Amino acid sequence: MENGAVNQQIPVDTTSATITIKGILSLLLQNVDENDNKRLISLGMGDPTAYSCFHTTQVAQEAVVDAIQSDKFNGYAPTVGLPQTRRAIAEYLSRDLPYKLTSDDVFVTSGCTQAIDVALAMLTRPGANILLPRPCFPIYELCSAFRHLEVRHFDLLQENAWEVDLDAVEALADHNTVAMVIINPGNPCGNVYSYQHLLKIAETAKKLRILVIADEVYGHLAFGGKPFVPMGVFGSTVPVLTLGSLSKRWIVPGWRLGWFVTSDPRGMFRKPKVVERIKKYFDILGGPATFIQAAVPRIIEQTEEVFFKKTIYLLKQSSDICCDRINEIPCITCPNKPEGSMAVMVKLDLSLLEDITNDIEFCFKLAKEESVIFLPGTAVGLKNWLRVTFAADPNSIEEALRRTKCFYQRHARKL
């Protein structure tokens, strides 16, 4: 390793409980050669706002400006969120459900990350464990570690389009298991679960008497053969905690407007003690800015379908280009074309490389030599894979993968 960069900055045996995507990407950025004239291209972070082809709708911008200029939303909001914001989110999510959510089911959070923290905080108790997918968005592991919540991993089956290994879920669960997490559309895999598979997940969770935490931050960003189906559709079978945000669908991750929703028509979460505990926890949290909350009803009600269709078109186009170019590079393959979200998992074949021993070393050398950044698969629990974000303009994707091909040719094992 050049100058021992990887060994000094990010040990190969780093545990997933200490990993964050931003932390690893920060180290990779530090490894970029500042004397290189190449433009930095990062396909490591799921932030489409970095590229000019992705931008939010004008309605959203106007709604925020009007909320600020009204001079009505400069004070504190209720800790659970503005009533009109909670109501608008409930109505928005109810469009795809066989029952109606109410504003009492909705709690406004500072992005989906805070919703994740709330969900785990509400479920933590001595001796409890939670079932997480592998690969998985690493914040779940990190939050669980802070909560002293034991983590047990079930695999997502790459050969079955990253479906949940339900046999493993049943084998892992015991009387101390409080919930299982699913992310749909998938981060980091780009998968979209079918209605039938989600039904099987619900039935398995019911059998095991555990909750389902449904991370739907990429909700509706599906462009393959399967439509997006919210897990809350099965709320009558098993209680569901639905987590989401404006971030991805409206392309405003920096606005930090998310939600924690009890998708539970049978009312388990409406028990007075449960509701009171959730509300008390929100009393110690800082939610999104009041004026952002105030803009939500108009954003949801007035965003035209053409805006969503354009985003889907751009993601489908960029994902196709990404996979096609990846498959032109011998040492990496894209075994499952993404059907949704903004990222795809790419398999790394180290046997074709001369002087690279793992995914972390690959990413550090690529950053240093080509000013291209991918996320090492180790960061999401899958060693010797890469997560590549395709929420970028086609030219940037083409250039990043052209450089990656040059990188491969430079490091290819001599026959």
Automatic annotation (TrEMBL):
Lineage: superkingdom: Eukaryota
Family membership: Belongs to the class-I pyridoxal-phosphate-dependent aminotransferase family.
Keyword Transferase attributed: yes
A molecular function GO annotation: transaminase activity
InterPro entries listed in its UniProt record: Aminotransferase_I/II_large (IPR004839), PyrdxlP-dep_Trfase (IPR015424), PyrdxlP-dep_Trfase_major (IPR015421), PyrdxlP-dep_Trfase_small (IPR015422), TyrNic_aminoTrfase (IPR005958)
Annotated ranges, domain Aminotransferase class I/classII large: 40-403
Species of provenance: Prunus mume (Japanese apricot)
Protein's name in the database: Probable aminotransferase TAT2
Gene that this sequence comes from: LOC103325999
Gene3D superfamilies xref list: Aspartate Aminotransferase, domain 1, Type I PLP-dependent aspartate aminotransferase-like (Major domain)
Keywords in alphabetical order: Aminotransferase, Pyridoxal phosphate, Transferase
